[in-house]
Design brief:
alpha/beta; Rossmann fold; SH3 type barrels; Elongation Factor Tu (Ef-tu), domain 3; 6-stranded antiparallel barrel; 5-stranded parallel beta sheet; globular
């Protein structure tokens, strides 16, 4: 049993609610905290998807805290969330694909949460993420969650090791079905609440709606194939992401995908699926968890994950120095997109991660 104080980020969902419940049962002095983002769903909007950080979520978080008999704080984070939205816009403006959830974890759900924990004298922070942490000889080590279908270790790659060292992830060793069962048996009002399935500041589910409200989709231009032939025109290059297939605005004899975006001209380059393959990528701001990769050192027999969906691609990773690494994929990896995060795994352990900086296509582009 522990009498140490822990600050739990209550999102109003079942995972963080069970995290708080389990920590209270273990004897921690639990304090609940809801991070307000200042964003509300537009009046009259309708969505079947469950988001996070809404007024309804704040209400649910308060109900859970009251039922558990723990102190509860709703902390204004609208400025911090605004910074994440600015990053989101700027990445699309640069022709890259952002990863706002990973940035939010780094800066808000773990970074700002740790700052608030310091302010209230809490030694620990906790969330409802499906990942696991263990203390190694060189610092905290990050592992996949026990539920492979719900694993969220990938979006924790940018969180500082110093913060992970004081982080508890109580549901990381559970299956999602176990989490719901625990919530139902405890009578928590959120036991049947749907999972969050959208970016919190994109309630419509279409990121272009957000960009349009912030000044538009950037320079209009051409949609051009790999032979230089114009296939269509578009209203703004920021409305496209690498690997996109739908909504290109023209018919073709074979499926076509976005393979490059050129903000300077506004051109969007398209090609067949084979053209989305990447042979080599460079990752910046790379750091390890409980390990390091020196310049010239190589990690063989690892897998890399560069999107939120579970799974990985076999690869070889070489340290380049200055927090940069080179990724050589064992086979062409589809739609490796600059701006996205990339995490390196050996088995279930996340060795390190960083931000995709450059991606070299597996086929030559003549345009």
């Amino acid at each position: 049993m522990s009498s140490e104080r822990v600050l739990v980020a209550l999102s109003g969902g079942v995972d963080s609610s069970v995290a708080a419940l389990l920590l209270a049962q273990q004897g921690y002095e639990v304090v609940g905290c809801f991070l307000r983002n200042g964003i509300s769903r537009p009046a009259g909007s309708c969505s079947t998807k469950q988001g996070c950080c809404s007024a309804e979520d704040a209400r649910d978080a308060a109900l859970v805290a009251d039922q558990l008999g723990i102190p509860y704080h709703a902390v204004d984070m609208h400025e911090e969330f605004a910074s994440v939205q600015n990053y989101f816009h700027d990445e699309y403006a640069a022709g890259r694909t952002p990863n706002p959830c990973a940035v939010c974890n780094r800066d808000i759900k773990f970074g700002a949460l740790a700052d608030f924990a310091d302010a209230i004298g809490a030694q620990w922070i906790a969330t409802g993420h499906y990942a696991q942490i263990r203390q190694g000889e060189q610092g905290p080590e990050l592992l996949r969650g026990a539920d492979a279908h719900k694993d969220q270790s990938y979006v924790l790659f940018p969180v500082a090791p110093s913060i992970l060292a004081r982080t508890l992830l109580p549901v990381g060793g559970l299956q999602k079905s176990e989490t719901r069962r625990i919530a139902e048996e405890a009578g928590l009002p959120v036991f049947g609440k749907p999972d969050s399935q959208e970016i919190c500041f994109v309630p419509s589910g279409d990121y272009r709606d957000v960009l349009r409200k912030r000044g538009g989709l950037g320079k209009p231009g051409r949609i051009v194939d790999l032979d230089g032939k114009e296939r269509a025109r578009h209203e703004g290059y920021m409305g496209f992401t690498r690997g996109q297939r739908r909504g290109l605005g023209f018919a073709a004899t074979e499926p076509m995908y976005v393979v490059d975006i050129r903000p300077d001209t506004g051109d969007v380059i398209v090609g067949p699926r084979a053209a989305t393959g990447c042979a080599v990528a460079t990752v910046a701001e790379f750091r390890g968890f409980g390990c390091s990769l020196a310049e010239g050192e190589v990690w063989d027999e690892v897998t890399v994950q560069y999107r939120s969906s579970p799974g990985g691609v076999p690869a070889r990773v070489e340290g380049l120095g200055k927090q940069r690494v080179r990724i050589e994929f064992a086979r062409p990896a589809e739609s490796v997109t600059p701006g996205q995060g990339l995490a390196v795994y050996r088995g279930d352990r996340l060795l390190g991660g960083g931000w995709l900086h450059e991606a070299t296509p597996a086929v030559e582009m003549r345009v």
